[in-house]
Amino acid sequence: MTQDIDVVVVGGGQAGLAAGYHLRRQGLDFVILDAAPVPGGSWQYMWDSLHLFSPADHSSLPGRLMPAQPGETYPDAGHVVDYLTDYEKRYDLPVQHGTRVDGVHPDGERLLVEADSGTWRSGAVISATGTWSRPFLPAVPGRDDFTGRQLHTTGYRCPADFNGLGVPPAGGRGSVVVVGGGNSGAQIAADLALDGVVVTWVTQRPPRFLADDVDGRVLFDVATARRRALDEGRGDTGGVASLGDIVAVPPVRAARDAGLLHARPMFTRLTTTGIQWADGSQAEADAIVWCTGFRPALAHLAPLGLRGPRGQIPTAGTRAVADQRLHLLGYGDWTGPASATLIGVGRPARDAARDIARLLSS
Ligand code: FAD
């Protein structure tokens, strides 16, 4: 049976919850469909040592401050899961966990949302499915020939996972190549190196560390200034990219200061047993960890036919340019500055809910 409703939110991570908070304030009737069986979005899958790059009071969704985590300036991922679980309950948000949306289809003036457990007909859809379910792996020659272990950031948990990976007689954890010059690459390389694993860190361009006193608070302030400048027609101030890429969170700083974080330029190919450098020399490796980013999870929107040549759906703010019934929330800066962060998603969520309220009342 098809249920009629004002708005369907697809995805119940932080972006979906922030959307729910603001849809409720607009008095709209909505449901949040989330494929994950429990609250927390992608935070529940992060590696064990991951901590936020901002303190708790700079990592909050609208309406409810994230409480500090005792003993930690920068909360860990488990603390974020607890916060999101509590947020969902506190605001009594109608989240249906364990419900995967397969497709959003045009249906006259409305949209038809088909999920594995039912169908909804709605006046608008907010897509907030994040990127975690679409890890990106670069096309590197020899990738399929390598006989060691390959995993993406999404598969990394802790250094102990590499116990016994080394080939006898050396044994131990063997040697691990970490690919990627962003925060995930630096943090995972640091996590492994600080635990005694032999790490080769490989980046496409020399890593750019932010100053040690720059954390998520500064990044958010810069993103806010950028948004303000854009809103006021003063032009693009350049955002956070000009500052650097890697936040020097405590483990990264510790590994860097201990001389354990030397990046090497990208290798040219994988061999069956390791990597080959640009000069033709080769190095053995037991595992490759690809910290090479993500792509937005938008397959459920394919029936709407809105994707541009580079795979993204063109948006004005959060609203799809070619279909005003669809909003995209989270994902990255193309849906609003800092919209893929805890503190930054509140504002675009509010704008999306207001826009939808206007649309549905017109
Ligand atoms: P997600 O958390 O991925 O939630 C999306 C939800 O949608 C999931 O529950 C998923 O199951 C569901 N879903 C997906 N497809 C479907 C479908 N077809 N049907 C139904 N449900 C679906 N941000 C910060 O503010 N501070 C930080 O310190 C920080 N550190 C980060 C560290 C890492 C390693 C990464 C990867 C990101 C970090 N971020 C940080 C960025 C950002 O806050 C997270 O990526 C965040 O999880 C994005 O939230 P989201 O709600 O957009 O997506």
Description:
The protein is built from six helices and 17 strands. It is of the alpha/beta class and 362 residues long. It folds into two domains: 2-134 and 295-361, FAD/NAD(P)-binding domain (3-Layer(bba) Sandwich); 149-209 and 245-290, FAD/NAD(P)-binding domain, CATH 3.50.50.60. Helices cover 22% and strands 22% of the residues. The strands form three sheets. Strands 1, 2, 3, 4, 5, 6, 15, 16 and 17 form a nine-stranded mixed sheet that branches. Strands 7-14-8-9-10 form a five-stranded parallel sheet, covered by helices on one side. A hairpin with a 3-residue loop joins β11 and β12. The chain has helices spanning 14-25, 77-90, 183-194, 216-231, 250-257, 346-361; strands at residues 2-10, 30-34, 95-97, 101-107, 110-115, 118-127, 149-152, 175-179, 198-203, 263-265, 269-270, 274-276, 282-284, 287-290, 315-316, 319-320, 323-328. α3 (183-194) crosses α5 (250-257). The radius of gyration is 22 Å and the shape is globular. Bound molecules: flavin-adenine dinucleotide (FAD). Flavin-adenine dinucleotide binds at residues 10-16, 33-36, 41-43, 46, 52-54, 59, 100-101, 128-130, 132-133, 184, 216, 297, 300, 330, 340-342.
